[in-house]
């Protein structure tokens, strides 16, 4: 009999109970290990392996539905590990043209190495038309920041039929919201900086796969470029997993409540949240997601209105990340890397009381309009 997500998150990766030992052993700080004789064993050098990583990777593998996980110093280190370890000169890579802007920035790097990159939007599974001859297909669903959703199983089946590998950036959903490996993907990738660790104080990422060969390839990339996490960050991330289900459920419920409240505001256009029944992505999201995430996006009349709105919020910080227990929001167009309107807002819902957060947002809209 299976266990619930909360039970899984609390116990994931923790060692068996041992008398006088802590439930989660503290971080191991080591550049080297005692290693007499032949260099054999699980821990040989600090850039290769670390006992604190081992426990976190076991936990992430359990959350991913049974997989080998490799942790990295950041989400982009995890993204780069897949893209740069699997692609060679002459290979074709298919990527969304609306995914996270720093992931898109790797297009130029891949092309400088002699790869060819095709891009298309996430919505309506548009990448289906780009798959012929591809070596690797990169998906991001829901997309950041517009929250479009693509059909992972459909795209993965089509890509595999053409001999391509598929990687899914699962940052926004986390493994408790969506399991790309169960839907056929070869890699599940995430910036654990965001909702998975959930406190806005860590930089971390991971790659999960059920292929030992693919797992070894990303581990080798981590070793050779040194994109390793610190032991303290890894320990804090593992500690944070215990509340993952609680955080996600509260955030998703509040995000839906906020989205429903925003539907009736005349200042708001282009409202997106996959959990809304009338959202363009809802039908696909329901088939493959168990939780719809913490991010709501919408567009206000112009840049000045958006800035007044953000300045009027009292419970919400202006910050560029998402997934924290603290609600954050930003005018995404200030970075210049996304094709969004000047008044486009990416709003990350935290774990504050739902009624308080919704009231704060509605009050800020009213104040911005006067």
UniProtKB/TrEMBL annotation:
The keyword Flavoprotein does not apply. Keywords: Lyase, Pyridoxal phosphate. GO terms for molecular function: cystathionine gamma-lyase activity; pyridoxal phosphate binding. The keyword Lyase applies. Its cofactor is pyridoxal 5'-phosphate. The modification N6-(pyridoxal phosphate)lysine is found at residue 194. SUPFAM superfamilies: PLP-dependent transferases. Its EC number is 4.4.1.1. Belongs to the trans-sulfuration enzymes family. PANTHER family: CYSTATHIONINE GAMMA-LYASE-RELATED, TRANS-SULFURATION ENZYME FAMILY MEMBER. This is Cystathionine gamma-lyase.
């Amino acid at each position: 009999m299976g266990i619930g997500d909360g039970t899984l998150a609390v116990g994931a990766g923790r060692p068996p109970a041992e008398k006088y030992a802590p439930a989660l052993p503290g971080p191991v700080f080591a550049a080297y290990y005692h290693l007499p004789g032949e260099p054999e064993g699980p821990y040989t050098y600090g850039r290769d392996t670390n006992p604190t990583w081992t426990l976190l990777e076991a936990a992430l593998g359990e959350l991913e539905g049974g997989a080998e996980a490799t942790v990295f110093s950041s989400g982009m280190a995890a993204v780069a590990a897949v893209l740069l370890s699997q692609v060679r000169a002459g290979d074709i890579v298919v990527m969304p043209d609306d995914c996270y802007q720093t992931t898109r920035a790797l297009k130029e790097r891949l092309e400088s190495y002699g790869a060819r990159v095709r891009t298309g939007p996430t919505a309506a599974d548009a990448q289906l038309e780009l798959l012929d001859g591809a070596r690797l297909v990169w998906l991001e669903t829901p997309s950041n920041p517009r929250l479009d959703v693509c059909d992972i199983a459909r795209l993965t089946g089509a890509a595999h039929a053409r001999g391509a590998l598929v990687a899914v950036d699962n940052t926004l959903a986390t493994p408790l919201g969506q399991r790309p490996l169960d839907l056929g993907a070869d890699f599940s990738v995430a910036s654990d900086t965001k909702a998975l660790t959930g406190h806005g104080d860590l930089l971390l990422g991971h790659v999960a796969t059920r292929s030992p060969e693919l797992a070894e390839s990303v581990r080798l990339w981590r070793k050779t470029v040194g994109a390793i996490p610190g032991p303290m960050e890894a320990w804090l991330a593992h500690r944070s997993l215990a509340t993952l289900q609680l955080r996600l459920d509260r955030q998703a419920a509040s995000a839906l409540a906020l989205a429903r409240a925003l539907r009736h505001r005349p200042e708001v256009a282009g409202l997106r949240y996959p959990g809304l029944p009338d959202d363009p992505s809802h039908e696909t999201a329901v088939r493959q997601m168990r939780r719809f995430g913490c991010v709501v996006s919408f567009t206000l009349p112009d840049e000045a209105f958006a800035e007044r709105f953000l300045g009027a919020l009292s419970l919400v910080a202006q910050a560029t990340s998402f997934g924290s227990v603290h609600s954050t929001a930003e005018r995404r167009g200030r970075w210049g890397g996304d094709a969004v309107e000047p008044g486009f807002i990416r709003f990350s819902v935290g774990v504050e009381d739902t009624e308080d957060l919704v009231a704060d947002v509605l009050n800020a809209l009213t104040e911005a309009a006067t």
